[in-house]
Amino acid sequence: MTPSATAPGALAGIKVLDLSRVLAGPWCTQQLADLGADVVKVERPGSGDDTRHWGPPFLHDAAGQPTTEASYYSACNRNKRSITVDMAHPEGQALLRRMAAEADVVVENFKVGGLKQYGLDYESLRAINPRLVYCSITGFGQDGPYAERAGYDLMVQAMCGLMSITGPADEQPGGGPLKVGVAVIDVVTGLYASNAILAALHARQASGLGQYIDMALLDTGMALLANQAAGYLATGEAPQRMGNTHPSLAPYQDLRTRDGHVLLAIGNDGQFARFCAAAGHPEWAEDPRFATNTARVRHREALLACMAPVLQARTSAEWIALLQDKAVPCGPINTIAQAFDDPQVRARGLRLELPRWRAHESPGPGPTHIAGVASPLRLSATPVSYRNAPPALGQHTDEVLHELGLDATAIAALRASGAL
């Protein structure tokens, strides 16, 4: 899928000053950028966002050779404009305050109180722009005994209990706490943060005033426990690791076939009855041990003992073909490469190829196009737009400062002073 001209996005006209880096903050601002907001990402001169260097893997140039740009950065920074400003420099601070005065939203993920010394904290910026929506993302929030601590996704996955319910049970091969394969706390914190920002922008329409948003990775991690947290709160019993099985549904897991595994996700008794009929064992659906989901969960081991030899009599593809038109959820367990090659993924255009440089620009070092994953947001009247790839470091500094009213001489002076 390649970008195309679209109608103005839902957030067209909204200006976002992005002071965040790594993943949670940039994931938040990428959602806003995809929806049409003008997001200006502020990066350190010379080095930029930490994730520009988190490799391998690295991006490849037009000749197919690896560059020094990590692909990590490209996951969460499309549709943004990159400028370099040294916020420790007095002129850099003044420049950022000037930008904040014209912004609708500021997003930052510095340690608690870290921006106050630069005059870039909420109270300082609210004084010059009362309509500003200011979102801080930290590990543990703005208060509480851990507020001063640095927070990282892996640490929070462990602290919130997510790792205690992820992975095989202790007695199983490979048993023990396991992290999720992506930085899921960071990603979901970014999503919650973008939701909160949209709510604050909506509230501003009535009040005329912005507000402060306090987002914490730990808060998100606890919320992400969902039904597992609800189960603990209802019973007082902490859930345990169960591998790929589900604590409240059966059969709802991976199952071995003749040539590998399939994922069977049966969520109700009707689906189970249809599976039994297709598998040639309609009597299972009448067995008191298996007739209801509650009974199947209680007799999970007996059910799996019945199912195992039957599942292993066919290949994974044969099971998927057999069940796909019978409203029985069953599918492959893909690698990421296989997922991108899936016909449904291709039909939905989920792989993007975005240009970094516009046609009239002279390409800088590194790739001219960058592959990415399309937004899952599908709005009919104000669709997501794909305007540009994740930017090169400082690619838009002069452009953004010209829009702010600075001429070439003023920009050159700022650059000479070390502010840019």
Structure description:
With 420 residues, the chain is α/β, with parallel strands linked by helices. The chain folds into two domains: 15-224 and 348-417, Crotonobetainyl-coa:carnitine coa-transferase, domain 1 (Rossmann fold, 3-Layer(aba) Sandwich); 252-334, formyl-coa transferase, domain 3, CATH 3.30.1540. It has helices spanning 24-34, 71-74, 90-102, 122-128, 153-159, 184-207, 217-224, 226-235, 269-279, 293-298, 300-311, 316-323, 336-340, 343-347, 397-403, 408-417, and strands at 15-19, 38-43, 58-60, 66-70, 80-84, 105-108, 133-138, 212-216, 252-256, 261-265, 330-331, 351-355, 369-373. Helix 6 (184-207) crosses helix 7. The relative contact order is 0.15. The mean pLDDT is 95. Keywords: Transferase. This is Crotonobetainyl-CoA:carnitine CoA-transferase CaiB. It holds the Pfam family CoA_transf_3.
Name some characteristics of this structure.
three-stranded antiparallel beta sheet; 2 domains; Rossmann fold; 420 residues; six-stranded parallel beta sheet; single chain; alpha/beta; formyl-coa transferase, domain 3
SS element count, helices: 16
- CATH superfamily label of the largest domain: Crotonobetainyl-coa:carnitine coa-transferase, domain 1
Relative strand content = 5-15%
Report the strand count: 13
Secondary-structure-based class equals alpha/beta
Distance N to C terminus: 35 Å
Mean pLDDT: 95
Number of domains: 2
User: How is the biggest beta sheet arranged?
Assistant: 6 strands, parallel
Helix content: 25-40%
Unreliable stretches (pLDDT < 50, length at least 5) are: none
Q: Give the second-level CATH assignment, the architecture of the largest domain.
A: 3-Layer(aba) Sandwich
Question: Radius of gyration, Cα only, in angstroms?
Answer: 25 Å
> How is the CATH topology of the largest domain named?
Rossmann fold
Shape: elongated
Please report the first level of CATH classification, the CATH class of the largest domain.
Alpha Beta
**Order of helical and strand elements:** EHEEEHEHEHEHHEHHEEHHHHEHHEEHH
Spatial ordering of strands, largest sheet: 5-2-1-6-7-8
Protein name: Crotonobetainyl-CoA:carnitine CoA-transferase CaiB
Keywords: Transferase
InterPro entries: CoA-transferase_III_domain, CoA-Trfase_fam_III, CoA-Trfase_III_dom3_sf, CoA-Trfase_III_dom_1_sf
GO molecular function, one term: CoA-transferase activity
